[in-house]
TrEMBL record:
This is STAS domain-containing protein. GO terms for cellular component: membrane. Residues 536-659 form the STAS domain. It comes from Riccia sorocarpa. It is a multi-pass membrane protein. Residues 1-25 are annotated as: Disordered. Keywords: Membrane, Transmembrane, Transmembrane helix, Transport. The lineage of its organism: Eukaryota, Viridiplantae, Streptophyta, Embryophyta, Marchantiophyta. Residues 1-13 have a biased composition (Polar residues).
């Protein structure tokens, strides 16, 4: 479409013959307006170059799986250099290690040793929480961090056991085996779940399907994390109270029954010792939060508590008075566990299910941690590379007596605060853990269980972020429902049900936005050519006789009829207002389609139906600013020809100019558009 330029605004009226099945009363004049002055120019809507089905498919695949263009920096290389660059991409340590220097090593050494002092007691505590022998917690902080240091993209994330994964394994595996009566089978299923968690993570990374993690929204993770933290605190009361018998279930009702149904079994020495060190840990954390220069106290407080409590029990022999201690722990490096995994049999499916849950949760936690500290340091992490790294380390970990490992927030925070610069801090921590496994393990024999419980409880208290809950409530009530649903599901049923509830509500929210998209009536901001939502901008004015509507979503079969009904409602409201005020009747409908990215056949059919309704009302329908893909689809579907290309405008402002000019030039200030041109037709 082109418009001739002239010194004056002009309107050219075109007529067409009626179709045999067309109602004579519905005939509408098609008008082409050429209005080019020294101030205004009406532009045509361009139809982009047509692309074949194969090109469209390739573009869609690239948008879904390669939106981050991971290999773009390496395209400038040729031959062997390109191959070498790809290898560096797959194994990042080969890229940064040759550039490593003494200054970086100093920061990583201090950070690595500091996080070791935090990791050792937490590893023992989380292994107890997971229901596996305590030494497996240390195993999990030895092998996986070494592998991650070679393959991961985060410089600050510390790898090891975490409480959320531990309680998930405990609750899910305990449904099949009791660790106290069948510890070998319990451990085998844990290792099987770890193996499949790695397979899932690696598969998602290789297939570049990291976008699936986006379905675990911030609100879902917040509720899930808070629920798991609450559950862990309740479960850890067993160790803090010195109870021997306890429920195999992790829901709040069962746990509380076990706690208050056995009050006669509470051990007061255990309670005093555990509560004392719990208060100590909480106070130290508060001090470090208020006085930032004492941040290191948070890192050494758990190990200090373990050392002091162990010496106290050893000197006073409280283990003879009902205070449960860790006991003997096997020394040495990780033994092979390849043959302990269920590769066949009925527990393969169970292990796979648990692996999917723990693998996805582990990846979600790692993403959150990695993005947090990369943003603070001004670099980006590669989500798909992270999944590959986590997958390989968990597969290898399952073969070396480790359970599911992921990023640990507390350790990562300490690593960042103490000056860690690269993944070398993970390697240093692994070496320190190896020394602990070979030399220091016997020193933990008299460590009281209540201290490990206190360490876990203190760590979990920080995961229930009430401020974040309040912010979600203020921001989005549906998101708050997601958060609350996840929390209630985890606390009162089980962790997997809580996660399922959160994902289900999140999906329902997405579906609601798709099938009930936002639309708005637009008005002109005085003194500008800008048109905005009249609800958001009350000062925006509507042009008499013209209704401008914006569609804020793609048009699919699932929402086409809803959008049609909403537009008709805006038109009907305009007609009612004109009738009540004796104003200019609605003569033109302008649909702003800039936000509409795609439209399907159902959407085209809805527009055709809308156009037919408008014709019967004597209203000319127009389209403003459709994007390239949409105008191409409309043209291919025959709608451009049906409506007339002259009724497609580059902007709302130009559409309003044309429609207003037509009403003025043809004396449409009063009366009906159709009737005014009946003689011409």
């Amino acid at each position: 479409m082109s418009y001739a330029s002239s010194d004056t605004d002009s309107v050219h009226i075109q007529t067409r013959k009626l179709r045999p099945d067309e109602d004579p009363d519905s005939r509408i004049v098609s008008a082409t307006v050429s209005m080019a002055t020294d101030r205004h120019l009406v532009h045509s809507v361009a139809v982009g170059p047509s692309t074949g089905l194969w090109e469209q498919f390739k573009d869609a695949v690239n948008d879904i799986f390669f939106a981050d263009q991971p290999l773009r920096p390496y395209k400038r290389f040729k031959g062997k250099r390109r191959v070498l660059a790809y290898i560096y991409y797959l194994i990042p340590i080969l890229d940064w290690l040759p550039k490593y220097n003494l200054e970086l090593f100093k920061g990583d050494l201090i950070a690595g040793l500091t996080i070791t002092s935090l990791s050792v007691p937490q590893d023992l505590a989380y292994a107890k929480l997971a229901g596996v022998p305590l030494v497996h917690g240390l195993y999990t902080s030895f092998v996986p961090p070494l592998i991650y240091a070679m393959l991961g993209s985060s410089r600050h994330m510390v790898i090891g056991p975490v409480a959320i994964i531990a309680i998930l394994l405990n609750s899910l595996v305990r449904a099949e085996f009791d660790p106290e009566t069948d510890g070998a089978s319990y451990l085998s299923l844990v290792l099987t779940a770890t193996f499949f968690a790695g397979i899932i993570q690696l598969g998602l990374g290789v297939l570049r399907m990291g976008f699936l993690i986006d379905f675990l929204s911030h609100a879902a993770i917040l509720g899930f994390t808070s629920g798991v933290a609450t559950t862990i605190v309740l479960v850890q009361l067993r160790g803090l109270l010195g109870l021997n018998r306890f429920s195999n279930h992790t829901d709040a009702i069962s746990v509380l029954k076990s706690i208050f149904g056995n009050t006669d079994k509470w051990n007061w020495q255990t309670i005093v010792l555990g509560v004392f060190f719990l208060v100590f840990l909480i106070v130290v954390k508060k001090i470090s939060q208020v006085k930032k220069k004492f941040f290191w106290m948070t890192a050494i407080a758990p190990l200090t508590s373990v050392i002091v409590a162990t010496l106290f029990v050893l000197i006073t022999r409280l283990d003879k008075h009902g205070v449960k201690v860790v006991g003997s722990i096997k020394t040495g490096v990780n033994p092979s566990s390849f043959n302990q995994i269920f590769y066949t049999g009925k527990y393969v499916g169970v292990g796979f299910k648990i692996g999917v849950i723990t693998g996805l949760v582990g990846i979600a936690e790692a993403f959150a941690i990695g993005r947090t500290f990369s943003a603070l340091s001004g670099y980006r992490i590669d989500g798909n590379k992270e999944m590959v790294a986590q997958g390989i380390m968990n597969i290898m970990g399952s073969w070396t007596s480790c359970y599911v490992a992921t990023g640990a927030f507390s350790g990562s925070a300490v690593n960042y605060q103490t000056g860690g610069k690269t993944a070398m801090s993970n390697i240093i921590m692994s070496i320190a853990i190896l020394f602990t496994l070979l030399v220091l393990i016997p020193l933990f024999r008299y460590t009281p269980i209540c201290i490990l419980a206190a360490i876990v409880i203190q760590a979990m208290l920080g995961l229930v972020d009430l401020r974040a809950w309040y912010l979600v409530w203020k921001t989005d009530k549906v998101d708050f429902l997601v958060t609350a649903g996840a929390y209630v599901g985890v606390v009162f049923v089980s962790s997997e049900i809580g996660l399922l509830i959160a994902v289900a509500i999140s999906m329902a929210k997405i579906l609601l936005h798709v099938i009930r998209p936002h639309t708005a009536q637009l008005g002109n901001i005085p003194g500008t050519n800008v048109y905005r939502n009249v609800q958001q901008y009350p000062m925006a004015t509507s042009e008499p006789g013209i209704v401008v509507v914006r569609i804020d979503a793609s048009i699919y079969f699932s929402n086409a009829n809803y959008i049609l009904e909403k537009i008709l409602r805006y038109v009907n409201d305009g007609e009612d207002e004109a009738a009540l005020t004796d104003g200019i009747p609605v003569q033109f409908l302008i649909i702003e389609m800039a936000p509409v990215m795609t439209i399907d056949t159902a959407g085209i059919h809805a527009l055709e139906e809308l156009n037919a309704v408008m014709q019967k009302k004597g209203i000319q329908m127009t389209i403003s600013n459709p994007v390239g893909g949409v105008i191409s689809t409309l043209k291919a579907g025959g709608f451009v020809e049906l409506l007339g290309q002259e009724w497609f405008f580059l902007s709302v402002s130009e559409g309003v100019q044309v429609c207003s000019m037509m009403m003025k030039r043809n004396h449409l200030v009063t009366g009906n558009f159709k009737d005014k041109f009946s003689e011409t037709v």
